[in-house]
Amino acid sequence: MSYRPTLDDLNAFAAIVTHRSFRKAAGELGLSPSTLSHMMRNMEARMGVRLLHRTTRSVAATEAGEMLLDRLKPVLRDLDLALDAVGEFGGQPSGTLRINASEIAARVLLNAAIPLFLERYPEISLDIVTENRLVDIVGEGFDAGIRLRESVPLDMIAVEFGGEARFLAIASSAYLKDHKQPKTPEDLKRHRCIRLRMPSGKLYRWEFEKHGQEVTIEVSGALTLDHVDLMAEAAVKGLGIAYVPERVARPYLASGDLISVLDDWCPSIPGLCLYYPGHRHVPQSLRAFISVLTEVERQGA
Question: Where does the pLDDT of residue 280 fall: very low under 50, low under 70, confident under 90, or very high at 90 and above?
Fold first, then answer.
């Protein structure tokens, strides 16, 4: 074969197959979907091989495309590593690092990772946007995101930190004095529960597990909030039972303002992860942040 695709062609192909979408790949690469489509048709024509199956709704690799991607991924990763290694000769990383995170995740980072990072890399401007909704970090221009492991998209590289997470059902002693303490998740149906409205508008369903038995409850209650901190404060005032992350409940439990119920139905789950696309160049600023995050995690172990 005399024709050899350019690096831009190959990067575009990898992004399209990974996202299974011209639109999402275009958002990542800063190109229009029509430009990407033209690039791929030209590449296929000159190679004499069909690499993509296209429909009006989706795009997927052909058998030849899958084989090319399998061989291409380690090459692109090695190229990123080589460029980063050369870039280190240029001095300290600089620029802006944009991270999308939940508010709870941002609070965890502020304990140690962010102060150390800003001290060690003064040339980097760290821009953290906190929102409860899960965003497309590539499409919205973020270098990385931070969420619970179960919420991380499968095509992302994830770096775990902060240990396991746990959700707890909590109530005040005043509330429990007037209402029989629940022994099973089903008992919650007879209680006033403080519900959480998700950014999508849907109500969060409470999930429990014990000895392999999983139970999901659609609780009822007169009060619905959109922030877990407000839910804990409402529980302190005796307005019902709330279901919040242990990090939020911990100070109230320590002070005795709240009591944990259904404790044996609330197991730990995989905790927070920093995640980012694995098929494109990883900026030095993000590699530096991951290095600090890993160091802090190791020191806290």
Answer: low
